[in-house]
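Budget justification aside, the reviewers requested a transparent look at the raw inputs and outputs of the sequence design task funded under Objective 1. We therefore reproduce one unedited record. The lines immediately below are the structure tokens for a 129-residue chain.
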């Protein structure tokens, strides 16, 4: 049987994809391809104890609030506090308090398009698997 091997991408709509891509490049140093509104991430850039997660949520979840989108994406960062400060400086609305788990720290913000984004700084010692 054929099987899925990982997340191949996160794709979503934007009224101005180039502008939103440039916002992410400026405030989170997303490695955009030259002249393109997309960024490749390769396994070698991910820190130890991190992973990509695929997870459906119940239709009535409030975990994505205050966004009214049917999705939320998570970005792995090397410095959660620094990343949250940067996106706030860029005009993002921070959402909720930092959540500390054995496998890392989490924080959230609303991007310029109204998407809720989760940032994850993985623990250096514990994996979520």
């Amino acid at each position: 049987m054929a099987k899925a091997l990982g997340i191949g991408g996160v794709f979503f709509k934007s009224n101005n994809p180039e502008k939103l891509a440039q916002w992410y490049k400026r405030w989170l140093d997303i490695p955009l391809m030259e002249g393109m509104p997309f960024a490749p991430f390769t396994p070698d850039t991910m820190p130890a104890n991190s992973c990509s997660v695929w997870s459906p949520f119940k239709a009535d979840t409030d975990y994505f609030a205050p966004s009214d989108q049917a999705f939320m994406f998570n970005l792995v960062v090397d410095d959660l506090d620094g990343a949250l400060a940067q996106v706030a400086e860029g005009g993002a609305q921070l959402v909720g308090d930092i959540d500390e788990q054995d496998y890392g720290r989490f924080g959230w913000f609303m991007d310029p398009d109204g998407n809720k984004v989760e940032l994850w700084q993985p623990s250096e010692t514990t994996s979520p698997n």
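The chain has a mean pLDDT of 92. The CA atoms of residues 16 and 55 lie 27 Å apart. Computational costs for records of this kind are itemized in the attached budget.
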